[in-house]
């Protein structure tokens, strides 16, 4: 394969990554060309390592390297509360606040009729299963404060309340239409502490 062709393949792959435009792809590609082989090997290894070793926790669907994630297996966590989020990155955002010590459940998305995502495409059945199997007293719904997040929150509240489990939602104060992962830690921490019962 020619040098041009092999560089082009790298540029194409880099360009597929989120947030990397053609200019950034070029900068990274030339950096890697000039870097020593060891640096390039470390990057390639790190990519393969997350793909091969990180999968979903069998209980909460957060990222894990064992059957269950570090939070599910942490015996100091409050096991009577589940915080429901859309994506694993939302778990990280809430963990950074230090304001929450319960368990999580990652839905793997939110209800979005436009994208043809309904409750059956999300891990809601698994959540209901946990409510039956674990001693859960409160479900805190922490989906993003946008239309899909609110739709998902009201669906969950309607489904869970009849089971006799308290359901709450993050307090307002988070930027409407925004993403939890971009909220600052103080605001997000306060929204968890001041959550309201649904
Ligand atoms: Zn877990």
List the keywords.
alpha/beta, 2 domains, 198 residues, elongated, binds zinc ion
How are the strands of the largest sheet arranged?
A: 4-3-5-6-7
Q: Give the integer mean of the pLDDT values.
A: 93
Radius of gyration: 20 Å
Bound ligands, each once: zinc ion
- Which fold name fills CATH's third level, the topology of the largest domain? Dna Topoisomerase Vi A Subunit, Chain: A, domain 2
CATH architecture type of the largest domain:
3-Layer(aba) Sandwich
Ordered list of secondary-structure elements with their pairings:
Elements lengths: L2 H13 L6 H13 L2 H17 L1 E2 L6 E2 L13 E8 L2 H10 L4 E5 L17 H10 L4 E4 L5 H14 L5 E4 L15 H9 L2 E2 L1
Helix pairs in contact: 1-2, 4-7
The structure holds zinc ion.
GO biological process, one term: DNA repair
InterPro entries: DNA_Rcmb_RecR (IPR000093), Rcmb_RecR (IPR023627), Rcmb_RecR_Znf (IPR015967), TOPRIM_dom (IPR006171), TOPRIM_RecR (IPR034137)
Pfam family, one: RecR_C
Verbal overview:
The chain is of the alpha/beta class and 198 residues long. It is elongated, with a radius of gyration of 20 Å. The chain folds into 2 domains: 3-53, RecR Domain 1 (Helicase, Ruva Protein, domain 3); 69-197, Dna Topoisomerase Vi A Subunit, Chain: A, domain 2. The strands form 2 sheets. A 5-stranded mixed beta sheet has the order 4-3-5-6-7. The protein has a two-stranded antiparallel ribbon with strand order 1-2. Helix 1 (3-15) crosses helix 2. Helix content is 43%, strand content 14%. The N and C termini lie far apart (61 Å). It has 7 helices and 7 strands, in the order H-H-H-E-E-E-H-E-H-E-H-E-H-E. Residues 57, 59-60, 62, 68-69, 71-72 line the site of zinc ion.
């Amino acid at each position: 394969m020619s040098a041009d062709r092999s560089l082009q393949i790298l540029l194409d792959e880099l360009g597929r990554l989120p947030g990397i435009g053609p200019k950034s792809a070029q900068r990274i590609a030339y950096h890697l060309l000039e870097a020593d082989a060891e640096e390039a090997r470390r990057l390639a290894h790190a990519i393969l390592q997350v793909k091969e070793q990180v999968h979903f926790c069998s209980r909460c669907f957060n990222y894990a390297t064992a059957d269950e994630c570090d939070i599910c297996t942490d015996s100091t966590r409050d096991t009577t509360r589940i915080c429901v989020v859309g994506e694993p990155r939302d778990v990280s955002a809430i963990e950074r606040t230090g304001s929450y010590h319960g368990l999580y459940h990652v839905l793997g998305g939110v209800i979005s009729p436009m994208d043809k995502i309904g409750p059956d495409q999300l891990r809601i059945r698994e959540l209901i299963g946990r409510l039956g199997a674990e001693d859960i007293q409160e479900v805190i719904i922490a989906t993003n404060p946008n239309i899909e997040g609110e739709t998902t929150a009201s669906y969950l509240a309607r489904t869970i309340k009849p089971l006799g489990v308290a359901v709450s939602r993050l307090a307002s104060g988070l930027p409407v239409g925004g993403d939890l992962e971009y909220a600052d830690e103080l605001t997000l921490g306060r929204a968890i502490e001041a959550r309201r019962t649904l």
